[in-house]
Write a structure and sequence with these properties.
single chain; 341 residues; alpha/beta; Rossmann fold; 2 domains; 7 helices; disordered N terminus
């Protein structure tokens, strides 16, 4: 009976465990619940096995007692028969019969106990079958949840990788934009703190006044665009670096090609050099074609820009369409040099 009580207790413990629902959001708890359920099923199965063994043991004891009773009765009757006595009427036979009657209640009690244990064992087997089916259903449900969790985990990992790639791409673009911003800020800083050089060479004295006026006009125009520059005179163009704009002034006095050739003799022509052709003429006498179309030599194409500016000794650089276009071109030329730094 103690074995029966322990089986009932374990069965109750199993019911309480099985009634708990696994947490579908936690894979570890689902696995622990499955392991606990398996342990309870094994304990219940062992309890049923113990009950079956107890039933078998009691049945064996019953058979042994019946066998011993039958042997005793047979031996007694055999001895009496050999002595020529009627075993039924003898006192010994009466005693043996009374002993058999005395053991009969115990035998019936054992039979009743065996029947009770068999019925209980049957109930335990039924309970075991029901629990097993329910546990199999729970296990199948947990397996499906685990499978779904694994699929969700795989999807999450794929999404995390995709977001990581997107984030890496965005960081790369951000770094490139920041680098461009720093480069532009550096160029603007170099331009605002840099110099613009003016080279006049060995030309007439009044060219100095014109060059100063052109420098002031460029400074004013650049400042109106938010950039301050320092226009300085250049005495030796050989020391000029290609990261500094150099304006070479040339007076158109005789033939254009000859005048430009003399002005550029000591200058290394590259994209940082601008040629400014000065025309000492009234507006109506200005050339119809710009100098950049007349200067077709290969070394002229290496220059950054070629412009024409008109002036009069009495008026200086006067206002006209050609001068306005030329000053705008020179400002753009200075900006382009700054972007290349």
């Amino acid at each position: 009976m103690f074995g029966i009580m322990r089986a009932d207790q374990k069965m109750g413990s199993t019911d309480s465990v099985v009634d708990r629902k696994p947490n579908p959001s936690n894979l570890d708890r689902v696995t622990q619940t499955q392991n606990l359920i398996s342990g309870q099923v094994e304990a219940l199965y062992e309890s049923v096995q113990l009950q079956n063994e107890l039933v078998k043991s009691l049945a064996g004891e019953k058979d042994m007692l019946l066998y011993q009773l039958a042997e005793a009765r047979s031996q007694h009757l055999k001895s009496r028969v050999e002595q020529g006595e009627d075993p039924v009427r003898t006192r010994s036979a009466s005693v043996c019969f009374s002993q058999a009657c005395t053991h009969q209640p115990e035998i019936e009690k054992l039979k009743s106990k065996i029947s009770e244990l068999q019925a209980h064992s049957k109930r335990l087997e039924n309970i075991h079958d029901r629990q097993k089916k329910r546990l199999e259903m729970e296990n199948a449900k947990c397996s499906n949840e685990v499978k779904k969790m694994k699929e969700d985990k795989k999807a999450f990992i794929h999404e995390i990788r995709r977001l990581g790639e997107v984030n890496e791409k965005l960081l790369k673009e951000k770094n490139e934009i920041e680098e461009k911003c720093r480069s532009l800020e550096g160029n603007m800083h170099d331009l605002s703190s840099g110099r613009v050089l003016l080279f006049t060479g060995n030309q007439q004295t009044y060219v100095d006044d014109v060059s100063s006026e052109i420098g002031n006009m460029l400074s004013f125009k650049m400042e109106s665009r938010g950039v301050k520059i320092r226009v300085e005179r250049c005495t030796d163009p050989q020391t000029h670096h290609n990261n500094t704009p150099l304006l070479v002034l040339c007076i158109h006095a005789s033939r254009l090609g000859t005048d430009v050739h003399h002005a550029l003799q000591s200058v290394k022509c590259d994209r940082s050099v601008a040629l400014v052709v000065l025309h000492h003429k009234e507006y109506h006498a200005l050339p119809s074609q710009p100098s950049e179309k007349l200067l077709v030599g290969g070394h002229y194409r290496q220059l950054g820009v070629i412009v024409d500016i008109a002036f009069l000794k009495s008026k200086g650089v006067y206002t006209c369409d050609m001068n306005d276009r030329s000053l705008d071109k020179l400002c753009s030329f200075i900006f382009n040099i700054a972007r290349q730094i």
